[in-house]
Amino acid sequence: MAVRSNILTNAAARDKFIQGVKxxxxxxxxxxxxxxxxxxxxxxxxxxxxxxxxxxLAMSTFTPPTQGDRNAAHRGPxxxxxxxxxxxxxxxxLQRVPSDPAFGLPYWDWAAAGExxxxxxxxxxxxxxxxxxxxxxxxxxxxxxFKASDPTSWRVRITANVNGQIVxxxxxxxxxxxxxxxxxxxxxxxxxxxxxxxALNENTYDFAPWGVTSVGxxxxxxxxxxxxxxxxxxxxxxVHVFVGGDMSPSSSPNDPVFYLxxxxxxxxxxxxxxxxxQGHGRNYLPPQSAPASLKGHRLNxxxxxxxxxxxxxxxxxxxxxxxxxxxxxx
Length: 330
Known about the structure:
Layout (H helix, E strand, L loop, with lengths): L1 E3 L6 H15 L21 H13 L19 H18 L13 H4 L4 H4 L34 E5 L5 E6 L21 H8 L16 H6 L12 H9 L13 H16 L50 E3 L5
Parallel strand pairs: 1-4
Antiparallel strand pairs: 2-3
């Protein structure tokens, strides 16, 4: 069974994660841009970039259109089980390419970094050259730095444009750590431990109307709820905004930090699901008896995605046989 650990305290997991995602970026055994309906010349799509396409399509798939902006993976109850399934698929691929069946995805404890000053958040341990590298357009430090003379250096090949359309590009990875954001109600900084603690104190997973205005654990962790202490974007959303650049659009898995963020989100969810009194149990809402208008977000609905098969939110509530975390202290 895989053990997921803190990327800043487990150098071996850090190095294997970097090695694995770079190998997946250079693996071309799947479809082409043409077969995926991506405009432009027909190019092979790497295994890593298939995850980028997958996430983009999920954000572009409404479930069903009567649900407004609630989509197949976000802005509703399925946010946590959908991304847990995605992380499992990536983890299995990372176990395959370096041939390490015990590999566990590392997580980034961004709430610990959030305790630092804003200046120190931008230079904390995750952004050093032997971890994720730093900020820039493109970034020029670390394992995902862009090198014009090296075609094997990390390249963004598929992205969502300003109109939300998926397009082909060939450029370096972009980050704008902690940059000022127009309309953001406050400084662009990471969440703090008090914010994760407040999420864990939410007794109920989700509430009607099952969207961005809902109260409850899922919406507070996803980051649309404005309670407590900081206005939205909060928690998960706040991390995307803080990193900026390629972490901003629907093609955000272009930045490997995406997975470190979501692995920590999954860790917080797992802490919430611990048996009482430590947690609130493996509970999920809405139930299958909820109206059909919530299809795609109910307990036993099939996840809406390219790769989910018959997987449901219920299947994602207990993944103990697959992995565990080194700690659930958040």
